[in-house]
Amino acid sequence: MTFLPEGRGGFRPASRAELLRARDEKRVCEGTAALCDREHNMIVDLGFMRGVIPRAEGAYSPTGEVRDIAVISRVGKDVCFTVTGVASDVDGSEYALLSRREAMRLCAEKYISRLRPGDVIPARITRPDSFGAFADVGCGIVGLLPIDAISVSRIAHSSDRFRAGQDIMAVVSAVGGGRVTLSHRELLGTWEENAARFEPGQTVAGVVRSVERYGIFVELTPNLAGLAEPGTAVSAGERVSVYIKNIIPERMKVKLVIIDRLPPAELPFVYDYPAAAHISRWRYSPAECAKVIESVYD
Known about the structure:
elongated, 5-stranded mixed beta barrel, single chain, CATH 2.40.50.140, 4 helices, 17 strands, mainly beta
């Protein structure tokens, strides 16, 4: 059985027969939550039939405690569920009884519990925050991407990288106790791979990430930043054009000169992820560099 983040293409039954087959197979399905009634029962639009997720079946928690916000915040969004049965209204109209809680429980038991550090998995950003980004790793179960694990290049807020609803790949860095911690920087290339895109003498676009007394850090790619000379009146978050003076692998340095300000760019980034399903070890820094930046999972 495949467990995907909500909204990433889960199985959608297209008929009553498919719905009943999904019930018999205990298959995790997906549909759109059209509304929550005043008892916070979730109404799901199946197209051919109305589905109902009772309030008690609206979310899963290892502690058993489910907050109302976990249910009502799904309105207008895709939700995962299992089919528990078919019932009828007083007028004889059929509706499907569904359980998001059971879909999440199955995901936790059969997928999340089997993840290991270094596994590369699909995720969907649910909320960027100042300390990191929350991401759905399967059936609405949320993991955390700490801000320093999003990229090697420093950012002030995870919204500098992600938007809610954005699909990404992520590396599992820790799992246990019902929590999943993720990383992203290992999927964005090493220093050498990123630096190979540029040459001294080029003028390229970048984003100012921090302004320090000794210089201005300008991000050239999500995993590569260079240092420009101080004195230019710019602020963090501004796009600028920069002249590349030098690239020094043994010191992991890119020397820059800021040329001009540029209009802001649209986010989110589109990432070109490697095809690996698992990472055992990843070294960002070049072999000739004394400073070592790496991740070891196995």
